[in-house]
Specification:
The complex is a heterodimer of chains A (about 300) and B (about 425).
Chain A lengths: L7 H27 L2 E2 L9 E2 L3 H7 L11 H34 L2 H12 L6 H12 L5 H8 L14 H13 L1 H13 L2 H9 L4 H29 L3 H7 L10 H10 L4 H27 L2
Antiparallel strand pairs in A: 1-2
Chain B lengths: L1 H25 L2 E7 L4 H16 L3 E7 L2 H13 L6 E5 L3 H7 L2 E2 L19 H5 L2 E2 L2 E2 L2 E2 L1 E10 H6 L15 H11 L7 E4 L3 H11 L17 H15 L11 H6 L3 E7 L3 H6 L5 E4 L10 E4 L1 E6 L4 H16 L1 H5 L4 E2 L2 H4 L2 H4 L2 H7 L5 E2 L7 H16 L5 H21 L9
Parallel strand pairs in B: 1-2, 1-3, 9-10, 12-15
Antiparallel strand pairs in B: 3-13, 4-13, 5-6, 7-13, 8-10, 8-11, 8-12, 8-14
The chains are: A mainly alpha (about 300), B alpha/beta (about 425).
Chain lengths: ~300, ~425
């Protein structure tokens, strides 16, 4: 017997789908189209279809001096890679350690710990940025005042080319670790007590219980947290934009900021769209690899 | 049900009220005025606009302030969409973009000696010419804000840099400047004779003093790699290497000056309100010393600009507002600006403004940024070259040479898109 399809579910989905379509799918498709056009708002000429020329400009367009592609694009990509490599693993590791630690605390205190870790996440990046700029300031910053009191050398947190990105990662860790902690904590709570009780009877130590029960059972949640963090790290923008403006010497000018400057300061929308799609493809590829790796037994 | 009826009544009343209000306002002509004055200067401007509205009951000027950081973006997009305000403020360096995009109206009919006009002879010729292109003016300068020398009088007296009366004596040339640096700098006390503030304006001033230029006279070809520019930046780096000036990354300059640990800074007149509020700092103001071969100091002007298609009553009202603001630019200057009307600068009211009067001496040789549509891309390259040099990462000629190469590519791109780049200055 053929059963009529029930459309009620779609009805509930409709408001979300409409917003999703209007503000995500449509702009993405529009952006993809735009990336094949030479569309510059400052130009006297109308937008012109140029095929893959914008992608070529970013990646392999030859120049008179023998170089190829956009050196600033490569520099921004490298800065972003450095951020991803530092920020994503650190955030996930710290979040996992904090979640495990909090889960072991007495039930009554867990809420207060969770709140303490989560509060920074609720502050907007503009406020966090201004706050940490003061913490990092060379002569009058909080961190250097502490270091001086401890008779240690001052650190050029934001003005040293080799230090600036690490400082941004440190700030990001403080700011974002709360979200993954809450998710991982919820995941830990989902693990039935029976496993731990059985392991305890078998004489398993706390560490072994964590390694053989908690982590394997937490794998789907952990995968979710890792993927979200890696995607978030690729899309980093607010931290360098507010704290370092991409400096010193463009060392923290990440891809998102370069796309922003290209598109909305220099009004090269076609080229900006092409770089956005290159970033999207990178993120998609990374996410796929992560899913594959985590799925393997 | 009763709740729904009440709601409908309230909404109906509000709509009706709104309609009434619109009709009342309909008797007035509304003029939108956008600017980026979000600091204390915004309150001064708001006060002027309120006075204007009171004095002109047939007009209703609505002023909207936005952060400079996003202001030009919003203005540009609004202009492209035909929704730009009737009047807006633009720095002179940003104006070529708006002119190029075709939504700026020329203002030559506002200049003249007739009623309601502004006498062009009353403006400084170089300041007015800065807004000229193809023989026409595209904005009315409201002010000029030059880079000047702020110095710490107490540190000067302690170091014995004084005149015959025992008063702190600011340097006027390279020799006096370097001598002052040597006397004021005391590494043990973490005290510096001079520190870089905004590297862009500081180095541009020195480059121009060394006879350097960043574009050819037509404003088309970049000349960033010119030897004079490299010579100027090499001299700047030399001060750092010699230990007379800290590297820019090693010092929070303006805060240091306000804390009394810095003898001299080159800063814009717009920093004045902060100093005036600070009662425990004995500071002085003077023109930037000539450390190169000629007088020069970076400066910029806020210009009052009209949208291209403003017509009829709105145009007449907008012109009235521009004249009013220009006539009241001494009040505007009190917040840290210099008026560009000679008659106003001759007034007792202006003469009583100490720092503004000092910095006004620089007007005849103010160095504006080059005028072209790719100024933002150009400044990015310039900033990077200056940063690489002052930090000691690259020699000046190499850093500037890289910038030159990148700028040539940018210029080619603009030319390929049909930009009229000639006579851009």
């Amino acid at each position: 017997m053929r059963r009529d399809r029930d459309w009620t579910g779609y009805g509930f989905l409709l408001p979300y789908l409409m917003l999703f379509g209007m503000f995500l799918v449509l702009p993405m498709v529009f952006g993809l189209g735009l990336s094949f056009f030479r569309y510059e708002m400052l130009s006297k000429e109308p937008a012109k279809f140029v095929g893959l020329e914008n992608y070529r400009e970013a990646l392999w367009l030859p120049h008179a001096d023998g170089t190829r592609g956009d050196a600033y694009f490569r520099q921004a990509l490298w800065a972003t890679v450095r951020f991803v490599v530092l920020a994503a693993p650190l955030t996930v590791t710290f979040a996992l350690l904090l979640a495990l630690g909090i889960s072991m605390a007495p039930e009554r205190r867990q809420n207060i710990y969770r709140l303490m870790v989560f509060v920074p996440t609720m502050i907007t990046i503009s406020v966090v940025g201004i706050l940490w700029r003061w913490f990092f300031a060379d002569q009058f910053g909080l961190f250097n005042i502490w270091l001086t009191r401890l008779h240690l050398r001052e650190v050029h947190w934001l003005t040293d080319v080799n230090m600036a990105m690490k400082s941004l990662v440190l700030m990001t860790l403080w700011w974002t670790v709360g979200g993954p902690v809450v998710v991982l904590l919820a995941g830990i709570k989902q693990i039935p007590d029976a496993y731990y009780e059985a392991a305890a009877i078998d004489g398993a130590t706390g560490w072994r219980r964590c390694w053989y029960i908690t982590l394997p059972m937490l794998k789907p949640v952990l995968l979710f947290v890792i993927v979200l963090n890696v995607i978030g790290a690729w899309q980093v923008f607010g931290q360098p934009f507010i704290i370092t403006s991409g400096g010193p010497e463009r060392s923290t000018l990440v891809l998102m900021q370069y796309i922003y400057v290209t598109s909305f300061l220099n009004y090269r929308l076609g080229y900006g769209a092409a770089m956005s799609w290159l970033l999207f493809l990178l993120i998609a590829a990374f996410s796929l690899v992560q899913f594959r790796l985590m799925r393997e037994k | 049900m009763r709740g729904v009826v009440t709601f409908l009544i309230v909404v109906g009343t509000l709509i009706a009220g709104g309609c009434d209000r619109a009709e009342v306002l309909g008797e007035k002509t509304t003029i939108r005025f956008w600017n980026g004055f979000t600091g204390p200067d915004g309150r001064t401007m708001l006060g002027l606009v309120k006075t204007f509205n009171d004095e002109n009951p047939d007009l209703n000027v609505i002023m909207q302030r936005m952060e400079w950081g996003t202001y030009y973006n919003k203005l540009f997009v609004a202009g492209l969409g035909g929704r730009a305000p009737e009047i807006f403020v633009s720095h002179s360096y940003a104006l070529p973009r708006f002119m190029g995009a075709g939504f700026v109206r020329e203002v030559d009919d506002l200049l003249g000696t007739g009623p309601g006009q502004l006498d062009p002879a009353d403006f400084d010729a170089n300041v007015l010419a800065n807004l000229q292109r193809h023989g026409r003016h595209w904005g009315i300068p409201l002010d000029v804000h030059p880079l000047g020398l702020f110095y710490n009088k107490k540190l000067f007296r302690e170091a014995g840099i004084v005149d015959a009366k025992g008063e702190a004596k600011p340097p006027t040339n390279r020799e006096e400047f370097v001598t002052a640096l040597r006397k004021l700098t005391d590494a043990k006390k973490k005290q510096w004779g001079f520190v870089w503030t905004w590297q862009r304006t500081n180095s541009y001033t020195i480059i121009r003093q060394f006879g350097g230029e960043l574009f050819d006279p037509q404003g088309v070809r970049p000349t960033m790699g010119a030897p004079e520019n490299a010579e100027a930046l090499t001299w700047c780096r030399g001060l750092i290497k010699e230990g007379l000036v800290p590297a820019p990354q090693d010092f929070n300059s303006w805060i240091g000056f306000r804390q009394g640990r810095v003898g001299m800074v080159f800063e814009g007149i717009y920093m004045l309100p902060e100093l005036e509020r600070q009662k425990d700092l004995d500071w002085g103001a003077a023109p930037v010393p000539v450390v190169g071969k000629q007088q020069s100091a970076w400066g910029e002007s806020h210009s009052l600009v009209l949208r291209k298609d403003v017509k009829g009553k709105k145009l007449e009202g907008a012109k009235r507002l521009i004249k009013f603001l220009s006539d009241h630019s001494v009040e505007w200057a009190m917040g840290g600006q210099v008026p560009v009307r000679k008659s106003l600068r001759a007034s007792e009211k202006f003469k009583s403004l100490y720092a503004q009067s000092q910095f006004a001496r620089e007007i005849p040789y103010i160095a504006y940024y080059p005028k072209n549509p790719y100024i933002f891309e150009f400044l990015t390259e310039f900033d990077l070259a200056v940063e690489l040099t002052l930090r000691g990462t690259l020699p000046a000629d190499e850093a500037l040479g890289r910038g030159q190469q990148n700028m040539e590519r940018v210029v080619e791109r603009y030319q390929a898109q049909g930009w009229d780049l000639g006579e851009a200055r």
